[in-house]
Design goal:
Radius of gyration: 23 Å
Structural class: alpha+beta
CATH class of the largest domain: Alpha Beta
Distance between the termini: 43 Å
CATH superfamily of the largest domain: ACT domain
Strand content: 15-25%
Largest sheet: 4 strands, antiparallel
Helix content: 40-55%
């Protein structure tokens, strides 16, 4: 959209330009909030679809289910009957200890995954999410907000939190989401470019669906 400013007084021109800048700022905040919300909604949808497909192959076998959960929680891939974290192969015994099962159960679970073409394709493409700043946020001078919600699939929570942070001039470095199928109390953790002031907590709690907010 173009605006013709010729013939407008300097004062009026300054007011108009300022108004346009404010409108642009509000628009950018709205776009950022919508983008963050879309990413979160897409993540939940993907995790639900993936879990439904995977859970069917280990139904009735709780030990194998433990192995599957360990693989998914850590982004471990299964390729050629071997287990990888990105490009690094992991010993079966280490995975068994992490899952709390024996080595044979891990081997059986891997064979079941490999025998199902659709599930095999999912596990072959799994990757670790990479560096998480959750544990080192305080050491790096970053902020960390932990948000517990009543329904992980509820729309608008990340968008609302993102909007409030943007209005406070605080950018989000990372958004970490627990899988509602794997975590008993899934949380949304936002890592921010700087520490978040405590006065934002009441406003974050006002977001529909938010049960608890903690700052770290």
């Amino acid at each position: 959209m173009l605006y013709q400013l010729d013939g407008i007084s300097s004062c009026r021109r300054l007011t108009l330009v300022s108004s346009l800048m404010v409108s642009a700022s509000i628009f950018c905040v709205a776009v950022e909030a919508y983008t963050q919300h879309f990413k979160l909604a897409s993540t939940f949808l993907y995790m639900e679809i993936m879990w439904n497909k995977v859970a069917t192959i280990v139904a009735g076998y709780p030990e194998r289910l433990k192995v599957v959960k360990t693989l998914l929680e850590n982004g471990l891939a299964v390729r050629g009957s071997r287990i990888y974290v990105n490009q690094i192969e992991l010993p079966v015994m280490k995975v068994a200890r992490a899952a709390g099962v024996d080595r044979r159960t891990v081997g059986e679970t891997v064979r079941i995954i490999e025998a199902n073409p659709e599930v095999r394709q999912i596990f072959a493409k799994l990757e670790s999410a990479g560096l998480s700043l959750r544990g080192v946020a305080d050491d790096l001078g970053l902020g960390a907000i932990e948000i517990v919600v009543d329904n992980p699939s509820r729309a608008g929570i990340l968008a609302g939190a993102s909007r409030l942070l943007s209005e406070a001039g605080i950018s989000i470095r990372q958004a970490l989401v627990d899988d509602p199928e794997l975590a008993p109390e899934p949380k949304l953790v936002l890592i921010t470019a700087r520490r978040v002031p405590g006065e934002l907590i009441p406003r974050l709690r006002e977001i529909t669906g938010v049960v608890k907010v903690s700052l770290y």
